Prior knowledge:
The chain is of the alpha+beta class. The chain has ten helices and 15 strands. The protein has helices spanning 13-42, 50-60, 74-95, 210-226, 233-267, 278-281, 287-293, 295-309, 354-365, 397-403; strands at residues 2-10, 115-120, 126-127, 133-135, 139-144, 155-160, 166-173, 186-191, 195-199, 204-206, 270-274, 312-316, 342-344, 351-353, 376-378. Strands 2-6-7-1-5-4-3 form a seven-stranded antiparallel β-sheet. A five-stranded mixed β-sheet has the order 10-9-8-11-12, with helices on both faces. Strands 13-14-15 form a three-stranded antiparallel β-sheet. A hairpin with a 5-residue loop joins β3 and β4 (133-135). α1 (13-42) packs across α3 and α5 (233-267) crosses α8. The longest helix is centred in the middle third of the chain and has 35 residues, at 233-267.
Amino acid sequence: MQLRYGFRLYPNGPQRSALARAFGCARVVFNDALRVREDARAAGLPFVTSGELSKRLTASKGTPGRAWLGEVSSVVLQQSLRDLDTAYRNFFDGLKGRRPRMGPPRFKSRKDNRQSVRFTANAGWKITPGGKLRLPKVGDVAVKWSRSLPSVPFTVTVIKDAAGRYFASFVVETEPSEVLPEVAPEVGMDLGLSNFAILSDGTKIDNPRFLRRAEKRLKKAQQLLNRKAKGSSNRRKARLKVARAHAKAADARREFHHQLSTKLIRENQAIAVEDLAVKGLARTRLAKSVHDAGWSQFVTMLEYKAARYGRTLVKIGRFEPTSQVCSQCGTKDGPKPLHVRTWTCSACRAVLDRDVNAAVNVAKAAGLAASACGAQIRPRPVPASRDEPGTHPKPRRSTARQAGIAPL
């Protein structure tokens, strides 16, 4: 399986300039190729192939207007064309129903928040004995190694985010040799907003709400940015402060997702989650809270960690009535408003916690041996046993016949 490992880069002044040239050249090549294909489509001509685009790129380096493309590694430019092919493939696959629908490729801007270039193995990059990352036509860049790579990487992507930070993302090929010992617990999980995650064993994990907690600081930084004159140096500095404040909240959320997903994978043999329609929920009045929770990123972490460590992750359909069915007797009581956090089953009279009950139903729908501990928050009345000593009146013949009871 392929894994990504990200590390912080600290390029010096000349190296930042060289990376800026690489970002700009990759963006220009992408936009030129996209323009060629769009013009061909508008003129009714056949789709321009990748080989033809590569030939045009090579020819453009000899022209005065594009001679500066030779200042960067040619691999970076070719990978930019591969990125365009991937964007078109995803667009066409969405039209054919092979993946979620997405828009056609769009032109890139130098003002985009994220800039990146990719170096493959034939680019000649390597990790030096001193622990630096040697990039062609850039130099030896200092790297903050937080852990060792499990194998030799075959591609590296250099990324610059909105906060002006540089990262190196290595892709390595590893075997799933880190299989954890088998454990007994199997849990269902219901993701929410009041609590981030509720497990079928009754455990509730609080929602940290990183964006909500940082709103005051973000508001102040945004106000200072709005007061700066456009195009000024002070505005550029204020924009970086806003970007760093957002990056701090995003990093804290990502760290929380990593710690929680690792804990769940280590402690449970199988985990069941619901396939939520996050895009749809992000268009409601709960949009900010939904984005703040980051459910999609968390489930993605669960997926690759389950595959890596030999665990099982099961996704159930988003239309399963997990909040409408009693986990004790299976009676469907119908939809309930969001403000109803506990409800009483009309059949068995069990008083259920809405979230824990949904987590138990998620586990049952996935076929897991989920424990219903915590789903019932008050014990329901239990009828007396039939063999208990005492006198029980016999029903009349007509009453027994109406109730469907065989006459004694």
